[in-house]
């Protein structure tokens, strides 16, 4: 292994990660050991194959999309920082964070950033809109074999209709946020042990 | 019947007398049997006593099972009325018939029969299907509810009943405190199976499931221990303080001793199954024998048999699951369910039968106050305990959860049999106790069992949003849930648990090496992978059940901007369709149902997802020009047929495999190939583009290429072409994803065989043809047929 746990702590300036994402030291250590256990090639980065080796992810309907979310645009490898960066979106929002530091950069686990993360899972071509196609893609992934294309199409239409406000038959990020304003995103997109 | 139930020893002797001469056995027969004239048998005459015991046993079980068929005839019945109610009713009916016919009390269940034969299968079933990880994560809470809760209930009920007994108006003053305590302990045994059945359709806090389940298991053990404790106290003349402490110490010894025996035998069982690969047929037998052995061994030492069998099952589960063959595994599961189902059925019928008869004494005060106190103490106990335990829990239990736990405190078989065990010498008012217990059981099973589901739904509805949810809401909710589950899976399972991690390390280092035959990948999801029979996959593929990516048809029908507003019924339809068809979140706890194995739905879902992914990835594979088909690197171990190993992968991808696919190596090596099939650089954007491309191309082109390929391959070999490997072109455009499955292990030769001589391997050839296909697109012979 390139890094032992302690070596990592020393070399990789985990304080950066701690402060950047406000993740505790013990969590970083745990996640790092998870990272290394996934990293079969032992070169300090994860590739898509490494993620797909997680069997639970293989039977997750949105597995591929989730895996893609870890990789920055155009890249095939993700290092630990990138790994943490993505996971940081799922840190629970603590009350005392909500009020502090309005001037600093918005933390990754803010509601808006969580929603942005979800939006990006839909929006593959990164045009900041969820088109009907993209919606259908995701719907089809989430749904069983018993729904016909026509039914799925009308469901997609209805979904867009409910969200679309500017009439462009696509869901922009603002519309996405609006339609989810009653949904407890903070709770749905938080993983408690990432405290 | 009398023979069966009141003379188990004799019955057993009779059953064992396999080869003994009829003459010798004759002497054993009781007076109830008729005398048989010696001499040649007269054919056609009825020799009932000869077969009486097995005959009656069979008849009882048959009756119980027929009753079950009867319930399910009207399909709504089991969801309204829990099965236990129906079974008791059948028992009542039967008891009434017997009573009416013979004018005497029907047989009463012998507690030996119950504790030695009927109870172990039920506990084994519960222990085997207990999700261990979740159990241990919540162990503190479970232990808290089970131990402290039971003690609370037992002592509370005992003392308050004693208080009632002191009131001379009720005529109960002769019941001592100890007797009351004993009664309290036996009536606090909770059997929540009915409640668990309700859980399947309500959204419950996942933790709740394991809580109720785990509590019931530990609860049984604790009740029995308490009961024995108090019973021994009752039979002692004087009780000193030291005895009380001895009693408490005994409590712990009994519990822990039972657990240790169970774990020991569990390991022995796991070790045994390591060597059973030549005798697959009797593999399930070992599981059952060892579990039962742990039960009776513990009972022999006066330790807790229930704890023993539970811990044996939980220990054995992990390792055995990996050592036995797929079929044995299924057999074990089904047989276990069958045994526990039969046991439970018999118990409830006996309960009904025993109710009718003359062993009752009715006392309004005692009975009604017993019932009242049971309810009150249960509710109080749950409430108080929850308040305390919520402080320590990360996910607190809500009011709805507490209500379910409290209201779901149904009494069942254990109290029933314990009360019959009371020694009449010490308990002159035993009949009173019996009556009280029966009333409590009936009330809880019938009234609470039937009303719990509507009440919970009422609670649910009350607190959910009144406004009409949008169609898309369910989609978004499910979307988020899937994402969250996915990320949790990426992070891996965490306990915040030092001990758990330590145990896992110990487990990996020593136990697994010792107990598991080939160190194969571990999680149950992986065994799910293996379980996916490729045959099914191909069948599904060929029959077009693979779900479609948005086909060109539907997309071309879409006209910009013309979304018609929907009527409420249409919306309702949509919502219904979605609810039914959206994939479930992968539950970490399988819902426990004594009457069925619930794994099938999620397996089906997993199959569909996996097939669809392979399908779409195969599409992307075909588009990629850089892939060349080469001879795959040999897999160098025998493996069970798992989907990806059977596929010849392009060399480029296999290279990555080489480093890690050594025998007995990293546990994920089995999955490496899986992932390489699935992976193949699925840049999402690329897939989308490809799909857009594909929409513009005529679809049947793929089929054409395949057909060409297959024709070509046929010339080169003399081997019989397995017809089912050929796609049926008439059925949609789906190609079979994989070669014909070969069940059993893949031998080395299969994999290293030259592609030209072996069976056709569709994917690589398709790959090759893909590039050629582009060139051939315009040729006339490639017009779709």
What does this structure look like?
The complex is a heterodimer of chains A (195) and B (785). Chain A is built from 13 helices and four strands. Chain A is mainly alpha-helical. In chain A, strands 1-2 form a two-stranded antiparallel ribbon. Chain A has a two-stranded antiparallel ribbon with strand order 3-4. Chain A is globular, with a radius of gyration of 19 Å. Chain B is mostly helical and 785 residues long. Chain B is built from 33 helices and two strands. Chain B has a two-stranded antiparallel sheet. In chain B, helix 9 (139-166) packs antiparallel against helix 17 and helix 12 crosses helix 13 (241-273). Chain B starts with a helix and ends in a 9-residue tail after the last helix. Mean pLDDT of chain B is 67; it is low at 1-35, 463-467, 545-563, 625-688 and 695-785. The interface between A and B is large, with 76 and 85 residues.
Give a brief rundown of this model:
Chain A has 195 residues and is mainly alpha-helical. Chain A contains 13 helices and four strands. Chain B has 33 helices and two strands.
List the helices and strands and how they pair.
The complex is a heterodimer of chains A (195) and B (785).
Chain A: H1 5-11, H2 14-21, H3 25-38, E1 46-47, H4 48-52, H5 55-58, H6 63-70, E2 77-78, H7 80-88, H8 95-99, H9 111-122, E3 129-130, H10 132-142, H11 149-163, E4 171-172, H12 173-179, H13 185-188
Antiparallel strand pairs in A: 1-2, 3-4
Helix pairs in contact in A: 6-9, 10-11
Chain B: H1 2-6, H2 8-15, H3 22-26, H4 48-73, H5 77-80, H6 83-102, H7 111-128, H8 132-137, H9 139-166, H10 177-187, H11 193-199, H12 206-234, H13 241-273, H14 283-300, H15 305-323, H16 326-355, H17 364-390, H18 399-407, H19 413-420, H20 430-463, H21 471-491, H22 498-515, H23 524-531, H24 534-542, H25 552-556, H26 568-581, H27 599-623, E1 639-640, H28 651-658, H29 669-678, H30 684-696, H31 701-715, E2 745-746, H32 748-752, H33 762-776
Antiparallel strand pairs in B: 1-2
């Amino acid at each position: 292994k390139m890094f032992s746990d302690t070596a990592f702590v020393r070399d990789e300036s985990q304080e950066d990660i701690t402060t950047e994402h406000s993740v505790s030291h013990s969590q970083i250590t745990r996640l790092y050991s998870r990272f290394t256990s996934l990293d079969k090639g032992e070169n300090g980065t994860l590739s898509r194959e490494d993620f797909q080796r997680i069997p639970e992810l293989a039977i997750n309907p949105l597995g591929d999309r989730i895996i893609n979310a870890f990789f920055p645009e155009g890249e095939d490898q993700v290092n630990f920082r990138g790994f943490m960066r993505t996971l940081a979106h799922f840190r629970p929002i603590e009350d005392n964070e909500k009020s502090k530091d309005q001037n600093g950069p918005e933390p990754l686990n803010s509601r808006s950033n969580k929603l942005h993360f979800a939006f990006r899972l839909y929006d593959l071509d990164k045009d900041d809109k969820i088109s009907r196609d993209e919606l259908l893609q995701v719907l089809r992934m989430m749904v069983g074999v018993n729904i016909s294309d026509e039914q799925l199409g009308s469901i997609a239409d209805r979904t867009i209709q409910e969200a679309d406000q500017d009439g462009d038959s696509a869901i922009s990020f603002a519309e996405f946020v609006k339609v989810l304003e009653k949904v407890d995103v903070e709770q749905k997109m938080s993983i408690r042990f990432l405290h | 019947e009398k023979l069966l139930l009141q003379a188990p020893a004799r019955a057993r002797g009779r059953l064992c007398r396999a080869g003994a001469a009829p003459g010798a056995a004759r002497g054993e027969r009781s007076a109830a049997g008729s005398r048989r004239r010696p001499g040649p048998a007269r054919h056609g005459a009825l020799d009932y006593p000869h077969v009486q015991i097995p005959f009656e046993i069979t008849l009882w079980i048959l009756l119980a099972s027929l009753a079950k068929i009867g319930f399910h005839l009207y399909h709504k019945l089991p969801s309204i009325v829990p099965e236990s109610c129906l079974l008791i009713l059948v028992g009542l009916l039967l008891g009434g018939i017997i009573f009416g016919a013979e004018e005497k009390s029907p047989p009463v269940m012998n507690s030996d029969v119950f504790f030695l034969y009927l109870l172990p299968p039920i506990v084994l079933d519960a222990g085997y299907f207990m999700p261990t990880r979740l159990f241990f994560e919540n162990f503190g809470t479970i232990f808290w509810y089970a131990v402290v809760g039971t003690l609370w209930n037992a002592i509370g009920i005992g003392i308050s009943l004693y208080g009632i007994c002191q009131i001379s108006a009720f005529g109960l003053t002769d019941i001592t405190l100890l007797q009351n305590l004993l009664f309290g302990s036996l009536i606090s045994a909770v059997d929540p199976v009915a409640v668990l059945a309700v859980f399947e359709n309500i959204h419950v806090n996942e933790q709740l499931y394991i809580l109720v389940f785990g509590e019931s298991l530990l609860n049984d053990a604790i009740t029995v221990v308490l009961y024995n404790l108090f019973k021994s106290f009752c039979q002692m003349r004087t009780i000193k303080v030291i005895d009380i402490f001895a009693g408490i110490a005994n409590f712990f010894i009994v519990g822990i001793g039972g657990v240790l025996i169970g774990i020991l035998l569990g390991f022995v069982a796991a070790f045994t199954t390591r060597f059973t690969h030549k005798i697959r047929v009797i593999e399930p037998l070992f599981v059952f024998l060892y579990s039962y052995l742990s039960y009776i061994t513990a009972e022999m030492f006066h330790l807790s048999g229930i704890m023993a069998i539970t811990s044996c099952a939980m220990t054995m589960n992990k390792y055995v699951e990996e050592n036995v063959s797929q079929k044995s595994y299924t057999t074990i599961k089904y047989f276990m369910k069958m045994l526990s189902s039969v046991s439970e059925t018999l118990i409830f019928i006996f309960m009904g039968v025993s109710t009718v008869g003359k062993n009752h004494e009715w006392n309004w005060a005692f009975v009604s106050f017993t019932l009242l106190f049971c309810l009150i103490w249960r509710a109080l106990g749950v409430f108080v305990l929850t308040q305390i335990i919520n402080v320590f829990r990360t996910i607190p239990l809500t009011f709805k959860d507490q209500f379910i736990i409290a209201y779901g405190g149904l009494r069942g078989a254990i109290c029933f049999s314990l009360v019959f065990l009371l020694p009449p010498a010490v308990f002159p008012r035993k009949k009173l106790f019996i009556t009280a217990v029966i009333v409590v059981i009936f009330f809880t099973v019938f009234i609470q069992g039937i009303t719990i589901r509507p009440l919970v739904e009422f609670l649910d509805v009350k607190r959910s949003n009144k406004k009409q949810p949008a169609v898309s809401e369910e989609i978004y909710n499910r979307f988020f849930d899937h994402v969250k589950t996915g990320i949790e899976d990426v992070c891996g399972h965490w306990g915040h648990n030092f001990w758990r991690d330590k145990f896992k390390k110990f487990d990996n280092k020593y136990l697994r090496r010792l107990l598991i035959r080939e160190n194969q990948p571990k999680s149950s999801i992986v065994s799910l992978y293996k379980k996916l029979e490729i045959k099914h996959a191909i069948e599904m593929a060929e029959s077009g059940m693979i779900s479609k990516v948005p086909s060109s048809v539907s997309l071309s029908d879409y006209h910009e901007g013309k979304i018609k507003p929907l009527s409420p019924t249409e919306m309702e339809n949509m919502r219904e369709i979605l609810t039914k068809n959206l994939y479930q979140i992968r539950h970490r706890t399988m819902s426990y149902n004594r009457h069925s194995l619930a794994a099938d739905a999620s397996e089906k879902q997993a199959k569909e997802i996996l097939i669809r992914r392979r399908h779409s990835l195969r599409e992307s594979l075909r588009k990629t020009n850089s892939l060349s088909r080469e001879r795959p690197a040999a897999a160098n171990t025998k493996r069970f047929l798992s989907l990806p190993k059977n596929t010849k992968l392009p060399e480029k991808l296999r290279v990555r495999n080489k480093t890690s696919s050594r025998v007995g190596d990293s546990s994920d090596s089995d999955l490496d190939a899986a992932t390489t099939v699935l992976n193949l650089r699925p840049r999402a954007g690329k897939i989308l583009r490809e799909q857009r491309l594909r929409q513009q191309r005529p679809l049947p082109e793929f089929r054409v290429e395949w057909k060409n390929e297959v024709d070509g391959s046929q010339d080169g070999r003399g081997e019989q072409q397995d017809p089912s490997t050929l796609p049926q072109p008439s059925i949609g455009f789906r190609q079979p994803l994989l070669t014909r499955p070969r069940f059993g292990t893949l031998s080395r030769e299969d994999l290293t065989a030259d592609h030209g001589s072996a069976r056709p391997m569709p994917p690589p050839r398709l790959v090759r043809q893909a590039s050629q296909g582009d060139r051939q697109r315009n040729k006339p012979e490639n017009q779709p047929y």
